[in-house]
Amino acid sequence: MTDFSKQPVLVFDIETIADIDGARRVYPQLANLSDEDALTALTSLRIQESGDDFMRLPLHKIVCISVFYMKEGQPSLFSLTAEKLSEKEILSTFFRAFKDLNTLPQLVSWNGSGFDIPVLIYRAMLYDLSVPLLFEEGNRINAMRYDNYVNRFHTRHLDLMDRFSQYGSSRREAMTVVANLYGLPGKREVDGSQVGEMVAQQQWHELAIYCESDVLNTWLIYLRWMRLTGSLSSADFEMWQNQTRDFLQSKLEEDHSIRHQDFLAYWPVAH
């Protein structure tokens, strides 16, 4: 059985906007345009290239990383946003979780292999950052040869979307679909397409709440996966769900309101 008091678990999600400065280097025709016009032109170019406006992964600028972190049996939930941190600082702070071989976390994501990790790689290399243990494959540390974050079929990084689809053998489902199936809130009024506007309007609190909600959904789906695979007993599964609920009810804003009241409202207590 899994003992969350021994190995840390880190569930994460990133939010991004288009990197206009980077796009000017990739598409020289944007060089002399204003930011607003460059974004409009870039969006048009992407639609011509791919049929939709989803940016190339290297051109996703990270504006938020949210983390649900279970360490020594104690949960924490926080966000690193561009309100007060540069993108380089966001990345550097997040990478601190991978500095010590003895406390490396179990990494959990939804589509992390297809989106979040590749974006982290492109953006970290832009700033000359180094995080060796995240990419160690056993060349220097033999114990990580068969247990590392890089190999798709290892479980040190568990991409739930990838795993549920049997690594693409079946359709990859959106997190909110799976969350709703299990009676979890999923995505409510906000989705990823609204992140750019939220950043433009300086709605950093709303962005953090949205991203944190994604990691909460992912954490609770992960508990179900752990129960399915026999890593949690039925009693432990219920205990960790209840502990998560208690934690969220105790996480308050400055005005003493419950930070994730909306999430709790759409996560009914099972009877």
UniProtKB/TrEMBL annotation:
Record flagged with keyword Nuclease: yes
Gene Ontology molecular function, alphabetical: exonuclease activity; nucleic acid binding
Claim: Hydrolase is one of the keywords in the record: yes
Pfam families in UniProt: DNA_pol_B_exo2
Keywords, ordered alphabetically: Exonuclease, Hydrolase, Nuclease
SUPFAM superfamilies xrefs: Ribonuclease H-like
Top-level division of the source organism's lineage: Bacteria
Residue stretches making up the Predicted 3'-5' exonuclease PolB-like domain: 53-267
Identification of the protein by name: Putative 3'-5' exonuclease related to the exonuclease domain of PolB
Organism encoding this protein: Psychrobacter pasteurii
